[in-house]
Amino acid sequence: MSAYIDARTLPGGTVLSPDIAIVGGGPAGISLALALADTKLNVLLLESGGRDFDSNIQSLYAGAASGVPYAALDAGRLRFLGGGTNHWGGWCRPMDEIDFEARDWIAHSGWPFPRKALEPYFPRAQTLVEAGAWTYDGSGDAIASAKGPVLPLGKGGVYTSWFQFSKMRGDVLPTQFGKRYEENLRRAAHVTPLLHANVTAIRLAPDASRVDHLDVATLNASGGIGTRLTVKPRVTVLACGGMENVRLLLASNDVMKPGLGNQNGLVGRFFADNPIPRDVATLVSFSGALAPFYASNLAMDNGAILRATFAPTAEFRRARKLAGSLSTVEQPVTLDETGTAAVVTTAIALGVDASRARAYSLGCGIELKPDPDRRLTLTGERDALGLPRLKLHMTLSDEDFARFRLTLAELGRQLLASKAGMLRINCSTREEWLKNMDWGHHHLGTTRMHVDPKQGVVNADGQVHGVPNLYIAGSGVFPSYSASNPTMNLVALTLRLGDHLKKVAARTAGRSSRDLVWRARLRPPGCTVSPIFS
After folding, report:
1. Strands (DSSP E) along 223-339, which ranges?
2. 5-6 and 275-277 as β-strands: parallel, antiparallel, unpaired?
3. What is the pTM of this model?
4. Which residues contact 184 (CB under 8 A, 6 or more apart)?
5. pLDDT (tens digit per residue) in 351-376
6. CA 203/CA 210 separation, integer angstroms
7. Each residue of 212-238: b (16+ CB within 10 Å) or e?
8. Distance between first and last Cα of the chain
């Protein structure tokens, strides 16, 4: 049985030699460790924090920003075991097939493989995030109708889709990976979580052919540098988020001056999030209150927790050259005199009874187009570990809003066509869109995937171009983004990476023991070798 180890308890100069080092104990890192747990590979899971929040550790995330106002860089991430799942909302939905396509109306879009390459991993990902039975678009309408009527829409480009929600044991929503899988990691014979272990640099071999070792440091009680360690893995996987992965790659520039994987200047570019503007429209249901699965998460008889959302079809997106979006009912609103008059007039024109009409505010999540100028760079300021801090330059195109407005207009047309309701769009100017802006805190695209090194940081298997034993896991590798929340999707992508690493290990199995002996002989005197990786 492996055990959790506090890096602060190890002697300075300790050298650890795992087969695979996973940097980051969030959903990607933990999913990958669990995926490799059934192999004989020795896996070291390095987590900067402990099991609980620590403000000194969290402050390592602080950074600067410019451009469109965005969340503080240390506000959308949590630096302890479980990572982002310690504060996520549990929203789950698989990306659509069109999200993987190269769309000629969205520059830089397209994945190096179609959705079907991820589909074998969705069931396991769904289980890990504890989102219940797989319903989504296949059977969501039929299952939800037992709890109330689905709002009828006329034939057109928008349909009712479904979110599902993560549910942890004890009916706590949602699943926190650090707590939920703590014992699973503890029981994994070949997985060792190393807590309070901050990777401060990725060191290449002098000829830049491979990662040679990782510099690791702890924080002491006063918030300064404590113990220094060295990790010499056969394979390294960065899984510390779409921002922190960038910082490590750019700061590790002693051999490759632009930074690891940055020979074409792409590391940190194409940052994206899902904008979530509030009160974008007012939806009126002529027949009265909407079913409860519109404005809240509702548990179904099959164990799934569903919430309805309005999504544009792939055909409509192609025909109108739109990006993805998911619109949700937020809360009831009271119409003013003008709104009430509009409802009465419209109902008379349609010949329907609107005496029980109810109005609701709509929110949404929007897919941004990839933008190379939306990027993370390093600043001259350094954190307590000596790493340069990040700066984010945030952009939002008026085109992103204009495309979504067309989807809202289509939803309104379909409501009128079905005589079920009507829609008023509340945002037209850029200022109105930004007024009630929120963010998904989904850090996407900064180490994008592409078969061409001139267009991506990693290849289709997540390997950093030019560095054969360095991989990246997580939503930072998404080359284009979708409006679906990324967690369940990035877990599926990470499980695919796990299968790839198993194949790599099988191909190099004959060299494994010799490599470890070779490293032991070259280890400088005075260093401590951890017995957990003998």
Report:
1. 225-231, 235-238, 275-277, 281-285, 298-299, 305-312, 325-333
2. unpaired
3. 0.93
4. 34, 37
5. 999 999 999 999 999 999 999 999 99
6. 9
7. bbbbbbbbeeebeebbebbbbbbbbbb
8. 15
